[in-house]
Design goal:
Elements: E1 42-43, E2 49-51, E3 54-55, H1 56-63, E4 67-71, H2 72-85, E5 89-94, H3 101-109, E6 113-116, H4 119-127, E7 135-137, H5 144-153, E8 157-160, H6 164-172, E9 179-186, E10 208-209, H7 214-223, E11 228-234, H8 245-265, E12 271-273, H9 291-309, E13 315-318, H10 322-325, E14 329-341, E15 344-349, H11 358-362, E16 369-371, E17 379-385, E18 394-402, E19 410-414, E20 435-439, E21 442-447, H12 452-458
Parallel strand pairs: 4-20, 5-6, 5-13, 6-7, 7-8, 8-9, 9-10, 9-11, 11-12, 12-13, 15-17
Antiparallel strand pairs: 1-2, 2-3, 4-14, 14-15, 14-19, 16-19, 17-18, 20-21
Helix pairs in contact: 2-9, 4-5, 8-9
Length: about 450
């Protein structure tokens, strides 16, 4: 273990600045400060944390930093939690959260379907063995390539997101064939942890409105297309939703539309997809969505509402993404510099907004932790920043770290499995980090580090 970078000596500890926050001592084992970490996380007597039976300090030394560590056991158990909470339901993993070959293998083995948003995600999944009939294709503006690829590969469902897609898709379907589709409905529900991830109201880009009749009009048009088979409705009302209430309200409105379709067209639609957006806790004290309770309440409400409307109960689909992989991931960074200025402590690490844009996009908040050594210094509130040439490159604005944090230290950020690498870039010509899986005491590389050769290889100029 190297507490300092090569060629650098540890600076003389500086007294803690104002605005200190309490960091209670924690014994070895499953400590309170690890409440948002993978269930396998254990604090060791050396200040290290083990995940999946693997020392994170050793993982950082083996794979370098930044590196993402993904707990396979946590992903699999979260898949099983959904299947137990939603029996007789199609549980579909939202691949936009994070996608790689190993993860595809895990969710397929656990019995989940897949939700993709592009021809690229779709082809990646199918060429790596995922059954196309268990895949749902989403997208508010699907390209001709998205649609033709979906038809060529035999995707199970295509979600119609705009009126334009109806004729466009129908024209691409071969004579004598029919493509199963769902209509994405805006149910008029405002829910989600940030304005940028609320998708259930009319003032955003997704879906067809229930309020202005667009959804009903789309249903009528699709029913008139011999090459399209309307099998159900879809809605997704937002992300980081902490309670079941908005889902129940949305479900009642969707059942109301199913009943109107039945009365008007004498058609029974057999499927209802309620999307995902289930909240996870990023910091101790955050409120995650109770998945077993959600499963019980949604299924009960669906049966009750359909019975009251006099229609058969459709098969339910849910689409968790973040809730499956977010809490399974830990990001590891090496401290490059510590700067005390203006009454603040800035801890600069070797990653940042290029591998995690969520704080810049949504104001996401995390609970970083110093690992690899035990400190007796008074704690301080630090701002963990990245290495990129942007003032907004902040990973955590109010991190509780020891006052003697120094270059060479390791900082771990839990709940890093979703919407980090899937949204990453090579800004400043810095390659994207690798991903390593940990499970039962073993670590293996899933995705290698992006190199300068990779970046150069795309540039064919001159």
């Amino acid at each position: 273990m190297n507490p300092t970078l090569p060629g650098l000596s540890a600076p003389t500890p500086v007294p803690a600045v104002p605005h200190t926050v309490p960091v209670p001592p924690e014994p070895p084992g499953r400590a309170a400060g690890l409440s948002v970490w993978p269930a396998s996380a254990r604090l060791t007597s050396r200040g290290d944390v083990a995940v999946g039976g693997v020392s994170l300090v050793e993982a950082a030394e083996r794979f370098g930093t930044p590196v993402y560590v993904l707990d396979e056991g946590e992903v699999r158990e979260r898949c099983r939690t959904y299947l137990r909470a939603f029996p007789d339901t199609d549980v579909v993993y939202a691949a936009k959260a994070f996608l790689c070959r190993a993860l595809l293998h895990w969710v397929r083995e656990e019995g989940l379907g897949l939700d993709v948003c592009s021809a690229g995600e779709l082809e990646f999944a199918v060429t790596n063995g995922f059954p196309p009939d268990r895949i749902v294709l989403h997208g508010n503006a699907k390209s001709p390539d998205d649609l033709s690829t979906a038809l060529r590969l035999g995707v199970g469902r295509i979600v119609i997101d705009s009126a334009w897609e109806i004729a466009r898709l129908s024209a691409l379907v071969a004579d004598g064939s029919r493509q199963k589709v769902l209509v994405r409905v805006i149910p008029g529900i405002s829910a989600g942890g940030h304005a940028a991830i609320r998708t259930g109201t009319d003032d955003q880009k997704f879906g067809l409105s229930l309020n202005d009749g667009s959804a009903q009009h789309a249903v009528t048009r699709i029913l008139g297309q011999p090459r399209l088979e309307l099998v159900g409705l879809h809605c997704h009302i937002g992300s980081q939703i902490t309670t079941a209430k908005p889902y129940l309200t949305a479900l009642r409105r969707m059942v109301g539309l199913l009943a109107r379709i039945h009365r008007q067209h004498e058609v029974v639609l057999p499927e209802l997809d309620m999307g995902g957006g289930h909240a996870v806790a990023y910091r101790p004290g955050d409120e995650p969505l109770d998945i077993p309770s959600l499963g019980t309440r949604l299924r009960r409400e669906l049966a009750t509402s359909c019975a009251a409307a006099g229609i058969p109960t459709p098969r339910l689909t849910v689409e968790p993404g973040r809730a499956l992989v977010g809490p399974a991931g830990v990001a590891l960074y090496r401290v490059l510099a510590v700067k005390r200025t203006g009454g603040r402590v800035f801890v600069a690490v070797d990653g940042g907004m290029s591998d995690n844009p969520r704080p810049a996009l949504y104001g996401a908040r995390y609970a970083p932790r110093l690992i690899g050594r035990r400190s007796t210094a008074e704690p301080c509130t630090a701002t963990v920043v990245g290495r990129y040439c942007e003032a907004g490159d902040v990973l955590a604005a109010d991190a509780a770290l020891p006052g003697d944090v120094r270059p060479g230290d390791l900082v771990a950020i839990p709940v890093a499995g979703a919407y980090h690498l899937s949204m990453a870039s090579s800004y400043n010509a810095v390659g994207r980090p690798p991903v390593a899986a940990v499970h039962e005491g073993r670590a293996r590389l899933l995705i290698r580090r992006e190199s300068l050769a990779d970046i150069n290889g795309r540039d064919i100029g001159l």
